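pipeline/complex-builder :: batch 7 item 3
reading input block
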Amino acid sequence: MDERDFTAGLARFFGGGKGVRLGIGDDAAVVHNHGEASVVCCDPVVEGVHFTASTAAHLVGRKAVNRNLSDLAAMGAQPDWLLVSLVLPRSYPARRRTQLLTGIRAAARAGGCRVVGGDVATHAGPLVVTVTAIGHAGQRVLTRGGARIGDTLHVTGPLGGAMAGHHLRFRPALREGAWLARQPAVHAALDVSDGLLLDLATLLRASGGLGAEIDAAAVPVRAAARRRAGGDHERALRAALGDGEDHVLLWAQAPRVDLPAGGPLSARARRALGVVVRAPGLWLIRDGRRERIAPLGFRHVLGAR
Amino acid sequence: MDERDFTAGLARFFGGGKGVRLGIGDDAAVVHNHGEASVVCCDPVVEGVHFTASTAAHLVGRKAVNRNLSDLAAMGAQPDWLLVSLVLPRSYPARRRTQLLTGIRAAARAGGCRVVGGDVATHAGPLVVTVTAIGHAGQRVLTRGGARIGDTLHVTGPLGGAMAGHHLRFRPALREGAWLARQPAVHAALDVSDGLLLDLATLLRASGGLGAEIDAAAVPVRAAARRRAGGDHERALRAALGDGEDHVLLWAQAPRVDLPAGGPLSARARRALGVVVRAPGLWLIRDGRRERIAPLGFRHVLGAR
């Protein structure tokens, strides 16, 4: 099963409707009750998939929270409340339980929200931690679907090599997301979790089937990915394009518009790594050459993950 | 690990705070944003714990939704939105996935709410379906903590033998909960999921450490439990007191107050099955005798579950 296809299928299956501004298929859903908008999302982390049996439990808790906060960040929303559902292995030690909860609580505090509910079950299988985040947005919610031809593409931080540790310790870009949502020149955004190319393809599809050119020299590569690649620039680039679990924000903004000075963006993030083009597809610009790249093929063929 | 103790520990661990009227430890949490109250809860169902590998997938989806709707019902709240997190076994057949989603969607529709978000992961372990329900209450939220000495105790439906099928097919008592929340004479309520005696003990503890007397002859026994017990009345009673997964509402109301006529309650539900007393503990009144019963001991010794 391709989870992305299945998730897209879910959106069709459950549909939208009255009071739902965005449903399944964006980073989070926006629902309206009594005139107030809540931004809500729910993501599981699973032992053997998102962490291993030997991952420190407080980092598991941290990741479970921050994956959801990163989804809210991509909408420009701020988290208020968390619900935590724990499915624990029967033999899970009490000490690790406490570490898990400590990691959850610390990440909630760092994100400015708190755990208000949840439930616990034990079973014969692996640890599953499912966090639901409920937040609010300002005047505007950022979505994946607003990129336009000619927009420049940017990310809030470096990419690649997240599995060396970043995937457990990343900081959700809540300030960046909220700031970007206030800029009319910013047209679309999402959380880079599956890999830059895959997530970019999602953004382009949601924006009406556009394409993009990526400037290989402008892709910010995380130090861990460079180290792991030794001197192999090609390998480092592949890691940045396809590794995933970066949890930085990718956004599209109007060309030749400087975002206001100040705010949480680094100078690096203000520089474009690519541009949105009319023709669907992804192209890599490298040493003056323009080569078409397939996001799935790229990942599969090169085994970057 | 005793999950109930652990859940109580969670409440202490995460604490309450500004904007949180109820946190972990009630059926659902009530949070306030911009003056509006949302009632939120999140419960997982796990293969091998809440259903088996051979349970029809649409019933798994139905149960996953309705457990959460029953939690909202116990607060007198109505569901608006659901988030669904699926952790699927790698080999889970596409046909069963569709059946699972169909069950989720049908239960959401029956409950008057809709699925607006969620996420999917696959892993090497068993199926885990975690549903988050977000709803709203009227003027008043029912809690576990308001029972008073002398209050009579009632349930919305019969008890026992839920594992014969009811645990997959129950209807959450949303209408009953909303109606009860509008009656000032109703002081406390909760969802009977762990068994009448265990959940009653929770209600009494939350109400300041009170006790209760149960009239054995007044406990409504589900037909499935009677059938399973053959002619053994003792066995049928044990099932009703301890089996759990009934997902009826248990409530305490002021004595000698008739609730208004009309509304969703059956005549049976209006008759008391017990009374709240000052001395902590549970007593069973049977054939004129008064015997102390320990909820955990009862379940463990008799193996009613």
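note: DSSP finds ten helices and 13 strands in chain A.
queue -> next item
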